[in-house]
Amino acid sequence: MTRYVLQRFAGMIAVMFVVVTVVFVIVRIAPGDPASVMLGPDATAQDVASLRARLGLDRPLVVQYVLFLGQLARGDLGESIFLNRPVLSALADRAEPTFFLTIFSLLIASVIAIPVGIYSAYRRGSLFDQATTTLAMLAASIPSFWLGLLLIQFFAVRLGVLPVSGYGGPGASLATRLGHLVLPAVALGVVSSALILRFTRASMLDVLGDDYIRTARSKGMGEFRVVMKHAFKNALIPILTVLGLTAALLVSGAVVTETVFGLPGVGSLVVSAVLRRDYPVIQGALLVVAALYVIINFLIDMLYLAVDPRVRY
Amino acid sequence: MMGRVNSVRRALLAGTAAMVGAFVLPTGSVEAQTKGGVVNVATVGEPPTLDPMVSTADLVGIITQHFYETLFTFDKNWKVTPLLAETMPEISADGKVYTIKLRQGVTFHDGSTMTSEDVVASLKRWMDLASRGKQTAGIVAGVEAVDANTVRMTLKEPYAPLLALLAFNNSAAVIMPAKKMENPLKEPVGTGPYKLKERKADQYIQLVRHDGYKSRSGEPDGYGGARKQIVDEIRFVPVPDANTRIEGAISGQYDYVDALPVEAFSRLQGQKTTEPVLLKPFGWPVFVMNTKQGIMSNLDARLAVRTALSEEDMLTAAFGSKDFFALNPAMFPKDYIWHTTAGTEGAYNLADPEKAKALLKKAGSEGKPLRILTSRQYEFHYKMAQVAAEYLKQAGFAVELMVVDWATLTQRRTDPALWDIYITHSPFLPEPALTGLLSESSPGWWSTPLRKKTVDAFNSEPDPAKRPALWAEVQKAIYAEVPGIKIGDFNALSAKSPKLDGVVPAPWPYFWNASIK
Question: In what residue span(s) does the ABC transmembrane type-1 domain sit (chain A) (predicted)?
């Protein structure tokens, strides 16, 4: 087992190195320039060149890369060109809304998708199964921004019970801030639930036809115990995988949803950084997101160990 | 001397009757309001910087004008009026020496008192860093403190747009404490009626009342006159999605919502929580020609483009109803002192593919690609580009529409090898000399003897009464040499809560003098 964990850990390091290099190169070869954005539409070429020099963007790419690696080795993701503050601190500021949005969306998605997926599989071919399968298709096809706007229209504009956008003003309490997450979490949760539901149903269907389920039933075990203890436990691996991937996607920024709801999360930080070509923020955010992906995948692998002992061999 | 000063004031930025109408402040109600409250303003996004010297972005100007002030500003008639200066400057007979008296007892947000040293240091920083300041630096021989409350600017030659440049709120000559003007700026410290309390990027910018603020006496007068600190706080909240801004206005979450698509006008009408605010006219879209390199460096090819286009169809596609745009070939709308039809006859809204083909043939550019650089950052740019592309194809142009994001556009337009036409827009500026199209160094690079002759004559004419006629010559030159094509006039839509008083339609909305019922 230790060898397995070490192998996976070494893999993580290699992946991160590749990500660092790819991110650096892609960001630099993309057209656009932070100096032009910062100086505005009427800036002259001379102004832009002088700001580029001040930001160190006129140096050869190799030199910039070596400096970047040096910074990373010291745990420094650099300083945002536009925010005038360390990238790590800008990311830390955005962690709260993104973290809670991820948790709430996953909870909503799981609460909808897992029980419905299990029951759909159990009642395969029934009206319930057909209806939920159709609804899942529909939910998977709805763009989250459109659902978001519908929710805003109904709950914020018509009923006036929830805010349209933002994350609360100065001094807003945690409860107020979380109140701003309800609509985006529902929008994301509904859309994410479709994928989880389909995986849950498919995985349960695989398991429910296995011999040990028939054996459990023939021993006179109650249906609830058969489904939940024997079938569901064995169907968990693909469900965990899709939950992990959904979480990673949400952490990396539900970009569109955050933009629609004006949430100051990681997704909106990345979008504004890309639009302004704020290289340090793009690099830093992508690295953190990549690290989260890798870590979440690592944790899922560790969960596999707990759920299915065969993985060790 | 005062007569001369007054005439400079009159003509430098003489405004328009319509703008007066749009700009009239309900001063009586301002007086009647009680202090307090918070104004929540939804903006299009997060400003790239809070240093108004280094950026020409409108959003930077809108926000920073509340905490930074300039020596001069614009009144409701778009005339230059003093702000931190005590009075309009004394200008020497040869038009080269400006002596500016400063108001006394003005304090910065850090408690220090503004002196001529701060003003001199700020103006030097402006000439070092700001694009408009650099433009001015070439004609400035020196800036010096005469005494603690007087500053003298000496020019190498008369330069009529100087006061407008000192009054403008982006790439702005704002006054900072000499000790707090590092670059990049760490801490915005100004003299404005509100000061920065907290900035949470992409969440809010919180401004609170500057208790030491010394307002000018009298009544509010456009951006000039008294600046009353009625509300306690102003919060600028970035809401990048236009649909969300509309819903935010209707739900009543925001008291003022900036930059809405004009299609939202009818939705905003008849609501209890918000009402539409139309700034008519706001600005003008322009197709800028690359006169330096490529197919558009040929005058006949530029004339062919202009002859091929239907400005009416382009504006209709971009703005829908005629309530939101106007066909106007003149560089300024009718109510402006700068309005003239000189040079525009038979040169606008032609949509004549046959004549355009003949011009293109004369230019020897048939079949050569015409690269139009545009962005969907502003959807109306893209819609106009699509319509223009079809008209240009009919005239025989091989159009390549290059649709990129705004950051890419701003970078690519600086390289003359990468484009032939790019699309942008501008608000109507109070001083024509500020127009980017006239600058030889702006992308487009219009540099001809005719440009130099007409623009130099306009910029160096000290007599305000003669300047409109000289501007007509500049406009004729623009129409003769086609460095760009003005597509028309368009209006801007915002929304405000009925509870919000004292806010008038303005290209750069401001919230001193505003109150909440």
Answer: 95-304
Burial of A3 (0-12, 13-18, 19+ CB in 10 A): exposed
Provide the angle, in degrees to the nearest 10, between the axes of the packed helices A266-276 and A279-307.
Answer: 150
Query: Which of B38, B55, B244 minimises the CB distance to A261?
Result: B244
- Chain B hits for A94, CB-CB cut-off 8 Å, are 202
Decide if A76 touches B, using CB distance below 8 A.
no
Give the E-state strand segments of B355-488 in sequence order. 369-375, 398-404, 421-427, 484-486
Going from the C-alpha of B113 to that of each of B66, B108, B188, the distances in angstroms are 18, 6, 16
- How would you write B264-331 as a 3-class SS string? HHHHHCCCCCCEEEEEEEEEEEEEEECCCCCHHHCHHHHHHHHHHCCHHHHHHHHHCCHHHEECCCCC
Q: For residue A96, what are the CA distances in angstroms to A82, A174, A265, A295, B249?
A: 21, 10, 8, 19, 26
Asked if A167 and B203 come within 8 Å (Cβ–Cβ), the reply is yes
- Chain A residues in contact with B407 (beta carbon < 8 A): 32-34, 36-37, 275-277
Please write the tens of the pLDDT for every residue from B443-484. 999 999 999 999 999 999 988 889 999 999 999 999 999 999
List, run by run, the mean pLDDT of 10-residue segments along chain A (313 residues): 80 86 83 73 72 80 87 86 86 90 94 95 95 92 89 94 93 94 94 93 92 90 90 88 84 78 88 83 86 83 76 58
CB atoms within 10 A of CB B216: 18
- A281: helix, strand or coil: helix
* Partner B contacted by A164 (CB < 8 A): yes
Q: Is B431 touching A (CB cutoff 8 A)?
A: no
A55 touches chain B (CB under 8 A): no
> d(Cα B220, Cα B197) in Å, to the nearest integer?
25
Number of Cα atoms under 13 Å in the Cβ half of residue B8: 27
- At A106 the three-state DSSP class reads helix
Q: Which residues of chain B does A38 touch, with a Cβ-Cβ cutoff of 8 Å? A: 48-49, 54-55
Burial of residue A173 (number of CB atoms within 10 Å: 0-12, 13-18, 19+) = exposed
Q: Which residue has the tokens 């979490």?
A: A185
CATH fold, domain A95-264, is MetI-like fold (1.10.3720)
CA B143 from centroid of its chain's CA atoms: 26
What is the secondary structure of A215-267 as a DSSP string? HHHHTT--HHHIIIIIIIHHHHHHHHHHHHHHHHHHHTT-HHHHHHTT--SHH
Whether B29 has its CB under 8 Å from any CB of chain A: the answer is no
Interface residue A171 vs chain B (CB under 8 A): no
Cβ neighbours, 10 Å, residue A234: 18
Q: Who among B204, B253, B442 is closest to A42 (CB)?
A: B442
Q: Picking from B8-22, B118-132, B162-176, which range would have the lowest pLDDT averaged per residue?
A: B8-22
Q: What residues are paired with B490 via a beta bridge?
A: B283, B325
User: To the nearest whole number, what is the mean pLDDT of chain B?
Assistant: 91
Residues of A in contact with B439 (CB under 8 A): 44
Which ranges constitute the DSSP H helices of B34-88? Answer: 58-64
CA atoms within 13 A on the CB side of B514: 30
Alpha-carbon distance of A77 to A20, in angstroms, equals: 11
> Using one digit for the tens of pLDDT, what is the confidence trace for B340-357?
999 999 999 999 999 999
Provide the pLDDT for residue B6: 37
Instruction: Supply B252's token pair.
Output: 């009543």
With CB atoms and an 8 Å threshold, state whether B239 touches A262.
yes
Establish how many alpha carbons lie within 13 A of residue B280's alpha carbon, considering only the half-sphere containing its beta carbon: 10
Contact A262 B60 (CB under 8 A): no
Cα A24–Cα A25–Cα A29 angle in degrees, nearest 5:
125
Q: Is B147 on the interface with A (CB under 8 A)?
A: no
Range(s) of chain A covered by CATH 1.10.3720.10:
95-264
Which tokens belong to A73? 């080795």
